[in-house]
Amino acid sequence: MFQLNLGLENKNVIITAASKGIGKAIAKIFVEEGSNIAICARNKDDLEETKSELLKLTDKMVIANQCNLTKTASIDNFFDFIMDYFKRIDILINNAGGPPSGKFDDFNINDWKNAYNLNLNSTIYMCKKVIPIMKSNKCGRIINMTSVSVKQPLNNLILSNVMRAGVIGLTKSLANELAPYNILVNSVCPGYTFTERVRSLSENIAKKNNVKIQDIIDQWQSTIPLGRLAKPEEIANVVVFLASEKASYITGTTIQVDGGFVKSLL
Ligand code: NAD
User: Fold this and answer.
1) If 0-12 CB within 10 Å is exposed, 13-18 middle and 19+ buried, where does residue 57 land?
2) Nearest CA to ligand 1 atom 15
3) Mean pLDDT of 255-261
4) How much is the mean pLDDT over the chain?
5) Mutate to test the pocket of ligand 1, among 42, 76, 199 (most ligand atoms within 8 A of CB)
C-alpha cells in the first residue's frame, strides 16, 4: 500500500496551549507520527491528563509544563524545562487561547495589552527562544496558529482580528528572513472548529440573545459551504503536513482550513 511518509519520527516538536482543542489534536498526530513532543497549557490538571492520554499512544517523549503564555517569565520557565530534555528543536507550533469576544467600545487599554500578550507577544517570544537553535541546525519549521479572521475579520471579535493580523505580518517577515537557514514559517487559519472555546462562545452569545445554543451553531453552519463546523483533527492534519518533509517548498503562506467559509478569491 502507498504511504505518505511524513518524516516526523524522532523530531522534537513544541506545541504551546495543547491541553485541549486544536492544540491537543495537533499534539496527538505528532505523537502518532513518532515525534517527541513538549506541550504546555495554563491548567495543570488538564495538562497532566492530556500528557497521560498521549503517553498511552507512544514510547517516545511526551513532556509537559504548566505555562501562562501571557507571561514572559512563564515562557522562560517552559523553555528551560524543554532544554533539559531536548538537545535540538525541529518544529515549533505557536498556539494559544483566544481573546474575549466584543466590539471596540467593550474594551479598555488593558484588554488590548492582554490580547497582545496572549496572541502576538507569545508568538514573538517563543520565536525568539527557538530561532537561534533552528539557525544553528540550519533547519526548522514554525507554524503560527491564527484564524480565518486574518482573511475576513469576524464580527464581535475585534481583539482577535487585530492581534492575529500582526501574527501574519510576523509569519511573512520571518519566512523571508529565515529562508537562507532552511527554516520554513507558515500560518494556519482555522475556521469554526468544534472545541471548548467554540462551545463557550456559542453559550455566551445564546445567553446574551436569549436563544438556544444550537440556533447559534446552526447560524454559523449556514455560513460555511461544507455546512458543518470542523473537527479539531481536520485543522491538525494540515498543521502536521506543513511541519513534514513533504512540505519542503512551502513557506510564507497563510492557509485557511475553513470548509469554504472565507469568501475572498485568495
Ligand atoms: P480551546 O479553548 O479548546 O483550547 C485552548 C488551549 O489553550 C487550552 O489548552 C488552554 O489551556 C490553552 N491556553 C489558553 N490560554 C492560555 C495561556 N494564557 N497560556 C497557556 N495556555 C493557554 O481553544 P481552541 O478552540 O482549540 O483554539 C485554539 C486557538 O485557535 C485559539 O487562539 C482560538 O482563538 C483559535 N481559533 C479557534 C477557532 C475555533 O473555532 N475553535 C477558530 C479560529 C481560531
Assistant:
1) exposed
2) 97
3) 98
4) 96
5) 42
Q: Whose CA is nearest to atom 34 of ligand 1?
A: 98
Q: Which domains does the chain have, with CATH numbers?
A: 12-193+230-257 (3.40.50.720)
Whether 215 shows a pLDDT value over 90: the answer reads yes
Whole-number Å distance, alpha carbon 145 to ligand 1 midpoint, is 10
Phi, psi of 90 (to 5 degrees): -95, -35
Ligand 1 close to Cβ of residue 259 (< 6 A): no
Residue 141 three-state SS: strand
Mean pLDDT of 227-243: 98
Output the pTM of the full model: 0.97
The pLDDT of residue 4 is 80
DSSP-based three-state secondary structure for 209: helix
Provide the pLDDT confidence category of residue 2 given band limits of 50, 70 and 90. Answer: low
What's the confidence (pLDDT) of residue 92?
99
The continuous run of DSSP H or E covering 27 comes out as helix 21-32
Helix (H, G, I), strand (E, B) or coil at 189: strand
21 lines ligand 1 (CB under 6 A): yes
Residue 29 to residue 47: CA distance in whole angstroms: 17
